[in-house]
Amino acid sequence: MTVISPVAADSKSLGSLVKKVSLVQVAAVLVAAILIIFGVITNNFFTLSTFQGILNTSGIIAIVSIGVTFMTLSGNLFTLSASVTVLVLGQAFLELVHLGPFPAILIILVMGAIIFGLQGWLVGRLGANVIIITVAAGFLQQGVAEYLSGSNPSILAPAGITSYLWMRNTYGGILFSVWAMFGIVILGELFLRRTVAGRQIYLVGENRAAARTAGINVKRVTIIAFIAAGICIAFAATLQAAYTQNVYSQGPYTFDAIVAVLIGGTSVLGGKGSLIRTVFGALVVSYLSQMMIMRGYNPPTQIFVQGLLLFGVVVVMQLSERGRN
Amino acid sequence: MVTESVIRAEGIVKHYGPVKALQGVSFELRKGEVHALLGHNGAGKSTLVKTLTGSVQPDEGQLFLDGEAVTISSPHEAQLNGISWVDQELTLIPNLSIEDNIALGGMEKTFLAQRKQHRPRVRQLLDQIGLGHLSPTQEVGTLSIGERQLLEITRAFGRNSKIVILDEPTATLSDFEIERVFAAIREVTAEGVSVIYVSHRLEEIIQICDRATIMRDGQVVTTQEIAGLDKSGLVNLMVGQLPEFAEVASSAKEGGSGDFEITNLTINDFVRDVAFGAKGGEIFGLAGQLGSGASLILRALAGLEPKSSGRVVLSGKQFRLGSTLRARKAGVYFVSNDRKGEGLFLSYTNSKNLTATRLPILAKASIVSRSVLKKSAQQLMQLSGVDISRRKMTVDSLSGGNQQKIFIGRNLNHPKMKLLLLDEPTRGVDVKGRAEIHQLIREASASGIGVIFSSTELDEIMELSDTIGIMHKGKLVNVEARSNTNAAKVFSEMVRELEPEGMKA
Q1: Do A213 and B333 count as a contact with CB atoms less than 8 A apart?
Q2: Interface contact flag, B324 A206, Cβ < 8 Å
Q3: Rounded to an integer, what distance in angstroms lies between the CA atom of residue B19 and that of residue A261?
């Protein structure tokens, strides 16, 4: 059952560190306990199909969240236009897919890298505020997309092209997007832990002034973190477009990704956290909404409970990081 | 009446972690006197002042106010007891008027409601300090730094205080303004107020003070009447008990990779036209008071000061200032005086910190292997002299001295380093840690790189330098080999008090 708990990573150390149990650990165990208890008292919740559902609804959101985590780790909060980018690049993917799935995916990934790389350049080079830049970039992307599509709000999958439909299939009951998410986590973690740039993302996030003073190229590291985010979000866009076959409105990605990153326990200030944690965060959110749907809660209640959880996480993290910086 | 004591401290002991800031200090302030508190940085003056003003609680010892044993548990309580402190940092609020600032600091409840009654009092205070030309309603933000300092002083005098502590009150003042401060001091002391005067300016101390207490290494050396003492007498008291420093052989190497030559160095229009150089393997000490520009020079060389210019040649190659990346590329490594803000990654392990800045060197094709990282971290841990079993502990769990060792250790044995800059390398470090850090720096230097460090502490300058450069108000006033000079001479040049008239800026 620990699979669904965000504390799985910490639970090993709990026994040996009883004396040093932190607020974060207590809160995490508490949340896990509540989730499990409610799962148990919900009829038919602990079934294979429920968990397939939880996984299958979280794959694309988790990939967007992984992207955002790169930014958060580098000390640059979040993007507030992830949904717009997923929409615009999803539409672009459907327009380009006649080139064949792999060329189309490649072009979209490059576009994502460029869109985010430019935002990273503005933030890293000019010291611009990340919130303002990502909001402005969102409007720009929307404007360009509407201009190019002649204000056509809905882009449909081209009829007769089937070469990319494997992207929306399930394999062993699990959607391709979920398998892709696992692949991205492994690659992303390897990048963060084993490459110079990946480790420097952590250093810059932990103490930007120290990184700069030590001669680390903070601007370059910031841009790399943004590009990594852009590639993940672009890939999520292709999966989303392939899955729905009709891209016409923004999904909930911007805020869902922030929720997943925070619930996963990655520090808002940067420097601490991981992609795996974010995946746990995304799974917890998915678990929660699945459970509430099965208990018959209406959407406002679902949103309220999600908000409550996020609020609790933010308060706990703020308390545990008090004194830092 | 002259000997009536208003505040007395007995046997005050204060430790900051392992650092003994005060070691059994006794001090007495008499009614109506101006009492100088002297000693170079780190001597314990500010800790003593903070104890008297309630912002620091002593570990041992007792305070007496008017002969009665008291505990002063907060600055607010100190004020209620008639103790005012004018810090070096200005505490005025820029967008409030002069009169409101004066009312704010005071204990009187006249704010807003009794503003009109308050105003004549404000005029009187302004007149007293020579600010009579200002209107009480003028915003403080429109005043010059000097005027603000005067306002700060007169506000303290206006609080019906019994004791006023002035910390470097004249640092930002012109000669004329200093005269006004002295006149005000004479006026209030004639009324029975006592003043503690903390300053490095020996001339002023001789002019205005009645007695002086001289501190060194957290202890009181002596308390003496000023009458009959001259500047060199004071200097001798301050540095007279310096231990003999063992001559450490310089490891200067001809044509070493760390040779450097700096010319025309100008920073922020404050440091002007500074020029010096040294050979690899030599330790160059930049001595200077706080704000002398010594630390600024190191920051500029590290690329941290955008408004800096000058010609810097390191190991035969010139590099342009103004970028940390260019400095790093040229082989310059910098140990900031702010190890928490600009140095360490506090919540990361010692291992991670030690390897943090050499990842590109340890990597092959941008990939870093765990075993290489581990090996490098262990080696650096050993070099820096921190117990290797602490490898996986976070840096913020270490003492200040060990943190500093990790910070310096990070730069040791670095194949690309040619010049190591250390800004106040042992600030906040205990005596043992300090000796070990000095040893680390000597070892680094012995490998043939250039080393420049800055320090406000005379002992450190004398112990560590092969060559000493003395900074004063943005100018490099003297450069001399350690073997050709002595502590008293360096100290006088640092405070620039024994120079002939006209040399003062």
Answers
A1: no
A2: no
A3: 42
CA A60 to chain centre: 8
Sign of the alpha-carbon torsion through A169, A172, A178, A182: negative
Nearest CA in chain A to B367: A195
**A267 φ, ψ (degrees, to nearest 5):** -70, 130
Q: Strand pairing partners for A155?
A: A247
Strands B194-198 and B34-38: parallel
Contact between chains at A209 and B302 (C-beta distance less than 8 A)? no
Helices (H), B138-230: 145-157, 175-190, 202-208
Closest residue, chain B, to A219 (C-alpha): B325
> Do residue B357 and residue A215 have CB atoms under 8 angstroms apart?
yes
Backbone angles phi, psi at A79, to 5 degrees: -95, 140
For chain A, give the number of residues: 325
Chain A residue numbers with beta carbons less than 8 Å from the beta carbon of B360 are: 196
Tokens matching residue B182: 């002295």
Residue A29 buriedness (CB in 10 A; 0-12 / 13-18 / 19+): middle
Min Cα separation B299/chain A (Å): 9
* Yes or no, beta carbons of A215 and B327 under 8 Å apart: yes
Per the CB < 8 Å rule, is B357 touching A199?
no
Q: What are the tokens at A152?
A: 């056509």
Query: Is the dihedral angle over the CA atoms A38, A43, A46, A49 positive or is it negative?
Result: negative
Closest residue of chain A to B300, computed from CA coordinates: A213
- What tens-digit pLDDT sequence spans chain B (505 residues)? 446 889 999 999 998 776 778 999 999 999 999 999 988 766 788 889 999 999 889 999 999 999 899 999 988 889 888 999 888 777 788 888 888 888 776 655 555 556 667 788 888 888 888 888 888 888 988 888 888 888 888 888 888 889 999 988 887 787 788 888 898 899 889 989 999 999 878 888 889 999 999 988 888 988 989 888 887 788 777 776 555 555 555 666 555 678 999 999 999 989 999 999 999 999 999 998 878 899 999 999 999 999 999 999 999 999 999 999 999 999 999 999 999 899 999 999 999 999 998 999 999 999 999 999 999 999 999 999 888 889 999 998 888 889 999 999 998 888 899 999 999 998 877 777 888 899 999 999 998 999 999 998 888 899 999 999 999 989 999 999 999 998 888 888 887 754 444 343 3
Query: How is residue B207 written in tokens?
Result: 């002019």
In the 8-state DSSP scheme, what is residue B242? P
pTM of the model: 0.79
Look at the alpha carbons of A300, A303, A306, A307 in this order and tell me if their dihedral is positive or negative: negative
Q: Which residues pair with B195 in a beta bridge?
A: B34, B164
Q: What are phi and psi of B447, to 5 degrees?
A: -75, 0
Contact residues, chain B to chain A, C-beta under 8 Å:
302-304, 324-325, 327-329, 333-334, 336, 341-348, 356-357, 359-360, 363, 366-369, 410
